[in-house]
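Record 1 of the preview.
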Amino acid sequence: MIKEKKSLKGKIPSRRKFFKAAAATGAAATAAVAMPNIAFGAPQTLKMQAAWPSGANIFFEMAGDYCKMVSDMSGGSLKIDLQPVGAVVKTSEIGQAVSSGAVDMGHWVTAYWYGKNPAASLFGTGPSYGMSSQEVMGWMEYGGGRKLYEETIAKVGFDYTGVFHMPMPAQPFGWFKKNVTKVSDVKGMKYRTVGLATNVLTAMGMVVRQLPGGEIQPAMKTGLIEAAEFNNPTSDSQFGMQDVSKHYHLGSFHQSQEMFEIPINNKTFNSLSPANKAILKNAAYAANTDNYFKALVRYSADLSKLMNQHKVNVYQTSDEILAQQLKGWDKVIGDFTKKDAFFKKVVDSQKAYAKRVMKYLLMNQPNYKLAYENEFGPIGKVKI
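->
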């Protein structure tokens, strides 16, 4: 019995040793569970070039918002080195630079590669058919648009995957030397825009020049052009358009549904983990909402500054000019669909989507202008 007690005593651990071992085992298990959340080594960094200048530029800021979301969603393991316009290549070369791997990503709009295939303009600067940019983005993801977009990319030889964000409000008709209300007021006028809008406004009798954003204000100052549009009250005021014109016309069909395109080099994209691929895509959805909310606040505040501080006269584009723009679209789309089967394929897809979706949306939406004016009075007389 005595010997048996001794052997048991040697084999049974003390309470202190038992709890010490248990604590060590628990710590090891906790470390094992926590381990996947620890980023090993330096974060993966992708280089992006935007089509916008750095500094006080809301589009560059919005590109930065997207980049921050990618970093936040990945816990800092995936970062984007955002570079301004011209840092690596010219704006017109961004698509090719992304395709070749000179940069991993870009931030621009499809209208900037419209010269390679006119169908590019349909993914952001095409005819409305009643749709705003939000509905066009809906068509992209749920109406067959993405497949057609990918076909368009392949046709021009680009080698990238694209994501979109920021459904832009309808762009202003722009800045003029006087209030224009009739089609005859703009015929023969030298005017700046881009994409298929160049064809539409040419059909209206305007003389259209395509210029980069940074050249618009100087061109109007020197008389190279007599009128111009860029995008919104914030960007326009950042360009200093209020210094060359005091007549600003909002609401136009020439570019009424645009959004940002983010091209991502396919080799780079395919090398990423499934989680990081999902982050690049889903960060665009997050930026989509955030940028739109930001735009409404900033654009309206800057419109107020233009009116009150810079004494800019603000008008809604007249129905006569809008109707002529729609006729211009009809002619341009008709001409392209007759000679380009693929262009027609994209247009037919958009029309089918718009016919169904917009019937619901337009019939379901109450007259918001009626509610606004019920509270604040006639919209044209409201001071903001």
